[in-house]
Amino acid sequence: METYTVVPGDSMWKIAVKNQVGLSELIAANPRITNPALIFPGQIINVPRINTGIRALETEVIRLVNIERARAGLPALIENWEVSRVARYKSQDFINRNYFAHNSPTYGTPFEMLRAFGILFSAAAENIARGQNSATSVMNSWMGSAGHRANILSSLYNQIGVGVARDSNRNFILDTDVHKRLRKYGTATQTRTGSRLIRSQVFYPIKL
């Protein structure tokens, strides 16, 4: 947990975006603030952070995806923190609901989940895998599968999000989304893109 000092013009939503955390997570980390719409300059806000080991694995998956894309002459994908947040929720959902499938009993299809989190897209795909013990073994598995390989090497996308959770046995569940995102607008409860749709690719959970 880190802290942030409120400056004039801040809101909880602006602080969340500035620190690349979800608004709901930021509010939950500050239970002493009874009205999140009322914060004041100089106030200290707790900012939740991702476990460093988990974050390292997320970053490594992105690096390996971009290596494969570079070999194919494709541009690198840029991480989108909001999509990584969605991926972490999906990874944790696998653990909480004890399932492993594209469709979530909590969020529905991957596409419904993205929309529910305010992410719009015009196309999407999903990769899932489990049983690997590293990001490298996950990528090897994906690249050995024609369907997964095609998703990774699509020229349609320019952003990526990766989310990891760990179960009680310390097995990793990893969820990766990549998409093309355009101009966005934000409110206190959701983030929207402009009038044009996003073209999106989604890679979803891997149990490591």
Report on this model:
With 208 residues, the protein is of the alpha/beta class. Helix content is 35%, strand content 21%. The protein is built from seven helices and nine strands. It has a five-stranded mixed sheet with strand order 3-5-6-9-4. A hairpin with a 5-residue loop joins strand 5 (159-166) and strand 6. Helix 3 (52-71) runs parallel beside helix 6. The two termini are 26 Å apart. The model is unreliable at 182-208 (pLDDT under 50).
Could you give the topology of this structure?
Blueprint: E1 2-5, H1 12-18, H2 23-28, E2 44-47, H3 52-71, E3 78-79, H4 81-97, H5 110-116, E4 129-130, H6 135-143, H7 146-152, E5 159-166, E6 172-180, E7 184-186, E8 191-193, E9 199-207
Parallel strand pairs: 3-5, 4-9
Antiparallel strand pairs: 1-2, 5-6, 6-9, 7-8
State the distance separating the first and last CA atoms: 26 Å
Strand content: 15-25%
Q: What integer is the average pLDDT? A: 81
Number of strands: 9
Shape: globular
Number of helices: 7
Biggest sheet details: 5 strands, mixed
- Residue runs with pLDDT of under 50 for 5 or more positions: 182-208
**From the alpha-carbon coordinates, what is the Rg to the nearest angstrom?**
17 Å
Strand order of the largest sheet: 3-5-6-9-4
**Multimeric status of the protein:** single chain
Strand-pairing-aware structural class:
alpha/beta
Order of helices and strands: EHHEHEHHEHHEEEEE
Portion of residues within helices? 25-40%
